[in-house]
Every structure is written in C-alpha cells, then in structure tokens.
Amino acid sequence: MRETFTWGHSALTAAFATGPDGVLRLMRLGPPDEAAPPDEATPPDDAAPLPVVEVLALGYGSEWSGQRGIETALGARLRYRGHRTGTDRSGTNRSGTNRAETGERGWHRLTLDLHDPGSGLTAEVRLSSPDGLPVLRSEVRLTNEGTDPLVVQAVPGLVLGGLPSPDALDVHWAHNEWLAECRWAAVPLRERVVDMSRNAHGRDSRAALVLGGVGSWPTDGHLPMGALTERATGRAWLWQIESPVGWRWEAGERAHGTYVALGGPTDAEHQWRERLEPGTSFTTVPAALALAGRGGFDAAMAHLTAYRRAVRRPHPDHTALPVVFNDYMNTLMGDPTTERLLPLIDAAARAGAEYFCIDAGWYDDTGAWWDGVGAWQPSTRRFPGGLQVVLDRIRSLGMVPGLWLEPEVVGVRSPVAAELPDDAFFQRDGVRLTEDGRHHLDLRHPAARRHLDTAIDRIVGDWGVGYLKLDYNISIAPGTDWDPEHGHAAPGAGLLAHARAYQRWLAAVLDRHPALVIENCASGGMRMDGSSLALTQLQSTSDQQDPLRYPPIAAAAPTAVPPEQGAVWAYPQPGFTDDEIRFTLTGALLGRVHLSGHLDRMTPAQLDLVRDALAAYRQVRPDLPSAVPFWPLGLPGWEDAWVALGLRTGGGRSGRTYVALWRRGDAAPERTVPLPHLAGGALRIDHLHPAAASGATWSPERAELTVALPHAPAALLLRLTAVDEDD
C-alpha cells in the first residue's frame, strides 16, 4: 500500500511517499507553497527521487557499480515502518549532549523508521528544522537488529534528489588552505558533470563531482560546504557537513535531474568502516541544508547563519564580544617573557583590549617549545617571578587573562610522553604515531582525559585564566587503528571516535567552567567545521601574516562562521603608515577583533588610531549577533583589487547595513557598490572607520553606493541607515 505524508513548518515542508517497493523517498523539499502533496505529480519509476537512506556495506555493494554514493543495494532494501514527529525547544550540540536552547526558536523533528528484514539493518533518519527557517538538518542512526555482524562502509547523513537539471545550475565550493582560507569558486554544474546522453544508453553517468576532506583537519583543502544555485530563478541549496574529521559530498546527474549526497568519512576515501555487532548502533555526522526560493547564495547563507546560531551551545560571549589581544601574530611569535609581556599588557589596556591572551611558549624553558608541549606548567626561565605576576598584571588593568594550549598533542621531549600508557595515544599496527615531533592523545582513554582535566582545572580553576586558545597544529591521516575499549578498528573509525570524545571532553570543561571562553584554532582555519562552531565561542580564521593578503579571508570568513565568532587578526605595527594601520584594523571590525602588534612601541598618535578603531567596533558589535552577511561585489577572489563584505540587520530597508571595503594595489580609486535591498530612498551614511573619511555617495534610483579611496592600500567601514526624505 502506497503511503504519503508531509512534515514541516511555516518556512519548510518535506513531502514523502513510498513506492510499490515499500522504499520511502523524499519527493519534495521547499517552502510550503512549493511542496505539493506527492500524489499530485508522481514521477515515472526511472525518475523517482532517491531513497531517503543509502548504505554501503560489505557483502551488499551497489546496484550500479561505480564510485557514486547512491543506488546502494541496502538503500533499495530498507522498507518504511513508520515515523514520529515532535516539537521542542531543545537542540543537540556536537558533543551529543542535550542542552536548552536560547528560547528564540523551537525545533520541529521527524524520525523515519526503516528496516531491511534480510540483513536486520534498521535506519532511523532523524530530521530537524528550526522554526521559521528553511534549513533541514539530517543524521542517520543505524542499528543491527539481525543475528550476524554487519560492516558498514559508507552512509551519507543526507541524500536529496529531484533537483533541476545540471544544465540549469551553478555549483559552488570553497578552497581552504593554510594562510588562504575561504576561497570560493563557482562554475556551471554541467562543466563538471558531463552530459553522456542518457537517452541513448538508458543509464546515468557513473561520474559525479566529488569533494572531500581527509585527516584530523576537517577544513584542510576545502570547507565541508557546497551549494547549487539555479540561474534562472535564484533558487539555492547550500549545505554544510558537520564532521570534525573526514567528509565527502557529491553532486551528480540522475534521471535528467541533479542529486546531492552529503556525509562523513567513508571506507574508500578515509579508511572508515563501522562493524555493527548484533544490537549495536552507529550515528552519522549531521548535514544541514539551507534553501532559498530566490536571492541565490547570499539568501541561503543568511538562513544558514541563523541556523548556526540556533544549533550552537549558548554562551555569554556570543553577545558580549570582548576585544582580545593576543601576543603572537607578528609580535612575540611564541617567545613570551615577563619583560616582553608587561609593556604589551599596559599598551593593550590603554588601547581598549578586554582580554589578553599569552600565546605559545609560556610553558617552555628550553627555547624550543614545539616538541616539548604536554605538561602545561609555566616556564621558570621566562617568568622568573612566576607566571602569576603576569596574570595579575592583566587582571589589575581590567582585562581577563588567557593562555594558549594544544591539548591533543604531547611533544616527544615532554615527560608526559613517558608517563602515559601507549593506549592513551594514537597507534597504527602497534606503533605509537609521531607527527612533526608530537604524539597524539586519544581522548577515549581515561588516562588522556585525566591528564587534560588536571591541566585545565589548574589553569582555569587555580590560576584564574578565563580564556583558552586551543590550537591544533598536526594532522593525522587516516587515524588510529587502536580502540582503547574494543581493540583494533578501522583507522578512520578510530579518528572519528576520538574526535567525538574530544568534543565531549570539551563540553564537560565548559560545564565545569561556564564563564570560560574557548577559541578554536588549528593552524588558523584548518578546523573551521560546523561541529566545532557549535561548541566553542570563537573560531580562528587564519594564520595569515601579510595584512594585504588578509582582506579576502576576512571578507569570506562569514561563509564558514557567524560574524560574532570569526576571529580576525588586526596587527598594526609602529613601522606602518597611518593608512596601513587603519587598513589592517578595518578587516577585523565586522568580526571578532584579534588585536596584536607592538602597541608598546607606538607613538601616542599611532595608539590613538588603534583606540579609534576599537571605538568604532564598540558601535558595531551590538548588531553582530543578529546580522547576516552578504557580498555586494561577489565573494572575493584572492587577487581582487577591491574587496567588500556587508552585514545587515532587519529586512529590506529596515535595520542597519554595514559595508567594509578594501582597496589593494593598483586599482581604480573609485568603486560602485550595488545595494539593491536599500533601493527606494535616501540613506544616512556614517563613516565609522576612519571616522574622518569622505567620498561615499548614494544613488537611490540605481541603488548604488559610490566609494572613493584615492590611495592604496586603504579601507573603509560604513554604516548605512534608511531615512525618510524629510529627515
């Protein structure tokens, strides 16, 4: 018997139907007015949408051999058994622990129950969506209800078919290398998915556009994101895979339409396999999909930004947004001492910093801190009077002290490397792994957790440190094949299990120390994934040291992280010109200011420039927690001479709009910036930074802002507010 049902809310509706084979399919997904009941238009069998679950397992394989992640034998065998719905005001953070939401949005939930009697495999597809947002979050829980073990090789968290033809779509993805993060590209999907004449062959192509990440840096190489936009209508489908390790997405052609499959690690790409003994379960990493009925990429990104706020762990830092000074970048560079720090602390306080973080090296007595990490005790050589003297100085000036840690690693020269058992570290074939002079802790092991809990509770509880920059500077691939509880496992499965244990440990740290602020860093932006963003308060966006190279990173960072979490370096130097000081400061003012630089060597006039920028930031930051990004000049290219980032609150002409512009190198001194959402009336233009700047004019008829920056490098931050003509 064919069954149909719909689920959703005011902004999103999903329509489901079973076919004659009993397989459940997602027939339509979109706004309610676009989601007709599935029996109004049943597609022919060869064009039917995909099953809601695809599972690749040893002994079962695919129905159509190839490297695509769809059309699996088990996916076609899972039969619909029922579903349940619910609404609540709770979410799940990436540690897997329930917590109360902020109360701003409720959640709509749907659980689909599927079963294959032959193998005994059961799949629970867990769908959720924040009320009023066209965003769908999906994860799959597999349980072996059979009598024999089942080895799973791949299972996407979300599969969606029935999208428009590749001929109508553009595909978007983001390169994300060290020092060159968030570099988006877009091409027609048909350029990557070739038309091989399905009508002539009776089958779809075996090919698809596939992107992925490997190892323990989930955003090394690419962001775990992508998008499809329909050129004719402005419809958009934007996704993120919330994996703390490897991931994979693919977009391909099926039955003259387009499908996407979004998931975590797999056997083929990541050496991930999960052996399900009878009665055991595994849950995939989640995937989230934001939809826009018009407005393209920017509109979908606004929805995804709101989703990221709804799903993350609540914390006061998300609205307080204090200015953080960090002594590392282009300043002490991992060589702090009492003598060097005290003048910097004084200068940072005079400039207006509210937190002061001592970065790497504070624990090292040898001058070679890289491979000696792990004990997390202060150096006596660097701080002859004790580290507490420096921490007290920070507090005495009204700032909160912070420290850098790299918790998951233990240097080969550290005494901790000999004190902890081998089972507390990553291993392969019985050999403890070493990467770049460090061993890697396995947070599934109680000894590893005790070691870190002791260090954190000493630093935060006893020393009074209120900010931790948690770095992660090695990447392990494919992982560890040693399971502290069950013996050997596939390396990719060991890596994912450790990453989940690390996030549970981190959530427990925040439970014990709720006022603690944690910055997530991995050589800059190599761990800029959704699972980390949902747990930590700040996200490092880059290690880029060249101020002329940072603007495209700063402008595109809100694609990966909400503005109030994205830490952007601002490192003015006494050797800079005034324009160069303003330029390097502007980049951080629409995110989280990560101040650095030798402020202690600046003239009073130069320090005034820093104070002016932070005064502008204090005008902006009340709007950051609710603002959504847009890119009036398009997402930036790495070499673009003009770069722009916009943030907006409210809808249409209501609310406030902020626009940051950078001019780099040899470019025309004037640029026109289209702002169609402000069309139809006059604007008040406030030059926030530099405050004395001029040269921005508004054309209400063309909805264009014209900005002049006569010299390069130069930057400008504007606030635009709609006004009545009579004002």
Label this structure with key terms.
727 residues; alpha+beta; TIM Barrel; Immunoglobulin-like; 8-stranded parallel barrel; globular
Please characterize this protein's 3D structure.
Strand 39 and strand 40 form a beta hairpin. The termini are far apart. The chain has three domains: 308 residues, alpha-galactosidase from lactobacil brevis (Beta-galactosidase, Chain A, domain 5), CATH 2.70.98; 309 residues, TIM Barrel; 96 residues, Immunoglobulin-like (Sandwich), CATH 2.60.40. About 3% of the residues have low confidence. Strands 5, 8, 9, 10, 13, 14, 16, 17, 18, 22 and 23 form an eleven-stranded antiparallel β-sheet that branches. It has 727 residues and is of the alpha+beta class. The protein is globular. The protein is built from 15 helices and 45 strands.
